[in-house]
């Protein structure tokens, strides 16, 4: 069975990934232990993480020290352990080399790389953040599933999640509402070149 490529993205109610200066404070205000458990379960079904350069560099600074942070909740430590031990593939033309353990740098050939990854044995492939990478994956029709965490926040301006040239139709197949008001939506794209 072929591995799935899953996009997991936090977004505001008005469709922004971050504020105009990459602010993410709105994201952390809504984050709860219940959501941490769901994120940990989500990541446990994958074993490979795809990232763009900006998101990779931010995560590479953050996660390595967190696995040993005893003040973290148990779910957060488990999540940090997976982030640090899973295979990470960073797509960048400017990053000199990846410093985070179990990381591999890919400079091009996005479609070819994803095709190879999907054919390999293993669990699913997931990407977090990485708006430019996700847009490129969407345009190449490579994403199998979207897991969108919609936060009850309106920013009015910022970096939009979707910046496509063409229409993309999706089918909702599951939802989960958290006590914080965040709603997790599971979508499958209705691929133009694949039967659903």
**What is the approximate shape?**
globular
Give the mean pLDDT. 89
| Whole-number total of structural domains | 1
Cα-based radius of gyration, to the nearest Å: 16 Å
Brief sketch in words of this structure:
With 196 residues, the protein is an alpha/beta fold. Helices cover 30% and strands 29% of the residues.
Can you walk through the features of this model?
This protein is an alpha/beta fold and 196 residues long. It has a single domain, classed as Dihydrofolate Reductase, subunit A (3-Layer(aba) Sandwich). Helices cover 30% and strands 29% of the residues. The protein is built from six helices and ten strands. The chain has an eight-stranded mixed beta sheet. A two-stranded antiparallel ribbon has the order 2-8. Helix 2 runs parallel beside helix 4. The longest helix is centred in the N-terminal third of the chain and has 12 residues. The mean pLDDT is 89.
What are the defining features of this structure?
alpha/beta, Dihydrofolate Reductase, subunit A, two-stranded antiparallel ribbon, 6 helices, 30% helix, 29% strand
List the helices and strands and how they pair.
Blueprint: E1 5-12, E2 16-18, H1 25-30, H2 33-44, E3 46-52, H3 53-62, H4 74-85, E4 87-91, E5 103-106, H5 110-119, E6 124-128, H6 131-139, E7 145-151, E8 159-160, E9 170-177, E10 183-189
Parallel strand pairs: 1-6, 1-7, 3-4, 3-6, 4-5
Antiparallel strand pairs: 2-8, 7-10, 9-10
């Amino acid at each position: 069975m072929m591995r799935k490529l899953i996009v997991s993205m936090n977004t505001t109610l008005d469709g922004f990934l971050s504020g105009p200066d990459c602010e993410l404070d709105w994201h952390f205000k809504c984050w709860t232990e219940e959501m941490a458990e769901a994120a940990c379960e989500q990541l446990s079904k994958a074993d490979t993480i795809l990232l763009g350069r900006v998101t990779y560099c931010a995560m590479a600074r953050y996660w390595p020290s967190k696995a040993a942070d005893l003040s973290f909740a148990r779910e957060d430590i488990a999540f940090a352990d997976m982030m640090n031990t899973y295979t990470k593939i960073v797509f960048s033309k400017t990053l000199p080399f990846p410093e985070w353990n179990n990381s591999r740098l890919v400079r091009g050939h996005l479609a070819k790389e994803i095709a190879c990854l999907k054919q390999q044995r293993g669990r699913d492939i997931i990407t977090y953040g990485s708006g430019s990478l996700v847009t490129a994956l969407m345009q190449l029709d490579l994403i199998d599933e979207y897991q969108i965490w919609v936060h009850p926040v309106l920013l009015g301006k910022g970096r939009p999640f979707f910046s496509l040239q063409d229409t993309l139709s999706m089918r909702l197949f599951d939802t989960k509402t958290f006590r914080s008001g965040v709603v997790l939506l599971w979508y499958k794209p209705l691929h133009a070149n694949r039967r659903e």
